[in-house]
Design brief:
The protein is mostly beta strands. 10% of the residues lie in helices and 53% in strands. It has one domain: Porin (Beta Barrel). An 8-stranded antiparallel β-barrel has the order 1-2-3-5-6-7-8-9. It is elongated.
């Protein structure tokens, strides 16, 4: 997977005349995960995991042969967790997506994804606040996943729409933590992607 990423990223920037302009948009994401490390603020104390959701912004850098470098930056969850719960969960990702080469307005999109998960907060045994909240700790780990979806191009409208799924697994390791928290996150998200229309691809 690392070799595939390195090869395709090199291809993305190898021939500027062969690609269109970068396109941007936002995603609404919702799913569920198993998580035996972090506190899920939407679950009861002691529950390993729970629902997952976010709103993110992204940029797509087109390459040749319908290859896209898709950079996703979460927005809603990092802000919500910081303000409401004094916690951090930040999980940016980069995906390499491939699609069929037709000019149809409906086509498939799929590819591998890599990212990093950054956490600061208590573990799943803790209350979200109050006397039952345990000590916070830093943890991080790689996000290894993929994406598969259907792209609906809408010429003449403000944005294209894409519906897809993003399964992933994340091993987590704590940093400078006396309790040495470690574990794994396994989950999946349903993604509704709204890409602002630009020049025809």
């Amino acid at each position: 997977m690392v070799i595939l990423f390195a090869f395709t990223v090199n291809e993305v920037f190898a021939d500027a005349t062969a690609r269109d302009s970068t396109r941007t948009g936002f995603k609404i994401r919702f799913g569920e995960r198993f998580d035996n490390v972090r506190k899920c603020v939407a679950s009861k104390t002691g529950t390993k995991g729970g629902i997952a959701g976010d709103i993110s912004v992204f940029a797509e850098i087109p390459s040749v042969n319908k290859t896209m470098l898709h950079v996703d930056l979460p927005v809603m969850r990092p802000i919500l967790f910081a303000v409401a719960f004094h916690m951090l969960q930040f999980e940016p990702t980069v995906a390499l997506t491939f699609s069929d080469r037709s000019d149809r307005n409906t086509r498939w999109v799929a590819g591998p994804a890599l990212g990093v998960s950054l956490h600061y907060g208590p573990d799943y045994k803790s209350e979200a606040s109050g006397a039952g909240r345990t000590a916070s700790f830093f943890a991080m780990g790689p996000i290894i996943g993929g994406y598969a979806g259907i792209d609906f191009r809408q010429p003449g409208k403000a944005f294209d729409f894409q519906l897809g799924i993003s399964p992933y697994v994340t091993p987590l390791f704590s940093i400078n933590d006396p309790e040495n928290h470690r574990g794994v996150v396994i989950g999946g998200l349903v993604d509704g992607t709204f890409r602002f229309n630009g020049p025809k691809r």
